[in-house]
Each structure stands twice: as C-alpha cells, then as structure tokens.
From TrEMBL:
This is Bile acid:sodium symporter. Gene3D superfamilies: 1.20.1530.20. It comes from the Bacteria. Coiled coil: none annotated. It comes from Ruegeria marisrubri. InterPro entries: Na+/solute_symporter_sf.
Amino acid sequence: MILSVLTFIARHGKFGLIAGLIAGIALPGLAGALRHWIPEMVALLLFLTAFRIGPRDTMESLGALTRTAGTALVLQLALPLAFLGGLALLGLPLSPLALAVTLVLAAPSVTGAANFAILLGHDPAPALRLLIIGTAALPLTAIPVFAMLPQFGELASVLHAALRLLVVILAAAGFGFALRHWGFPRLTDRGRRATDGMTVIALAVIVVGLMSAIRPAFERDPAELGFWLAAAFIVNFGMQLLAFAVLRARARPDAVPTAIIAGNRNFALFFVALPPEATDPLLIFLGCYQFPMYLTPTLLRRLYDPR
C-alpha cells in the first residue's frame, strides 16, 4: 500500500513541488516552524538521492569526474568573475540585484538538482557528481570572487559554511551509498519509483521552510516582491537556457543535469559572510528563487524532454 502511494507521488512529482510552493505561501506559521529543520531535511534528501542512484552510477569513470571538475570551475569561478568584470568595465555599481546575481553564479548546486533531473526523465548521476565536486571546490573558487568583493564580510565564514555543507553532503551520501551497496545492490524499478516518491515529499516539505520570507514581503510591499520574483525567474531560467544551448551544441551527454545546476545554485551559503544590511533584501530574493527552481520540472519540461 505504502509503495503504491509513493509510486503515485513519484508519477505526479511536479504537482507535489507546486503544492509545496503553495503551502509555503498559504501557511506562514508552518513555514517558520520548518525553517529550523532545513539542514536535517536537506541531509535526508541527499541520503535518498544517493541511495536511489548508487555509488557505481555516481562515480562512473575518471573521465566523468575530470569533466565534472572542469564544469564546476566554469560555473562557479569563470562566470562570476566575468560578470563582475563586466560590471567594472561598464562602470556599474554593485547593486543588491547585481550582488544577488554574483552570489548565484559563484555558488555550487542546490541539493535537489539530481531530483529535478529524475523528474524530467534524465540521468541524475552527473548532477550528484557536480553537487559533490562543486561544493568541495567552493573553498577555492570563492577566494577570487570574494577578492573582488572586499566590502562584504569575511571569506573565512564562507569557507567554514562550505566545509560544513561538504561534511553533510559526504556523510548523507556515504550512508545512502552504503545502504544501496550492501542492502539493495539491485534496486527494482518499483523500489526506485518509491524512492522518487519519498524525495518528492522531502522537496515539497523543504520548500515550505524556504518560503518563510514571502508572505511577509507580500503584505509589506507587493511591488518589491514582484520585482524580485521577476529577477529570480530571469536569472534562474536565463542561466538554464544559456547553458543548455551551449552544451547541446557541443553534444554533451550531461547537458540537461548541468543546465539545471547552472540556474539552480545554493547561494544561501554566502549569507553567513555578508553583513545584515546586504542580506536583508536578498532574503526576499532567496524566497522568490524557490519559484523558478521548483517550477523547473514543469515549465522547462518541453525543453528538456528526452523523447
């Protein structure tokens, strides 16, 4: 019975994500309560993802790992430095929106990227590899970026947060890989779909906690919320469309999972290093960013359709 329910949820996963967005707006009290449990829920999500994919498919080959490392450097180092260089050449100030874009470009993948690839019918292993390697590389890729942002916080805080996240990722993934390797070496299709159903539930619950700033922002200034919401869609979907066009032109087999990550980044990591006066407006952007993120499997399905 439970397996049947989880399979049904997996089959209609995109609606589960939308339900999470709606709950985050409609239930601000629940959103506030769940916000404190986000780290534990993220760890559970990573555990389920690693269990679903398995260690063999994740590692694949040395060539895949090398390609993934190169992709992480482009996404997290080359892109934010190019953006900041462009601002300097044009003589533009580092506005709150420009800072938000910089942090998005410099951040590693969100933890749910592999799950979005699953919902879109693509191989999630490249996304999980990029999540792990990108997070491991963040202490190095963040140094040049923050060197161009001397007025914002201390780099040590970012490195500490990145290392803490890496420990969580490796621990959760390690437990997931171990359970899969020794407990379920050959996961059946039904077991895989049931696991997908559990990840949809985890994603839907997590997003409720991440939406805690949306309802107060709407009640305070709907126009400002609309601005940040539009900016979130442009940044997220814009990066996904650009990355997918480039990677598809190069016939990259990992075009879809990489494009998903190009637009969906865990930039909240950097909040620990920035002063409150810089992060206050970005909290609204963080909440708005969940909309294009969780709507990716719905709105970009035709673009990423594997058929």
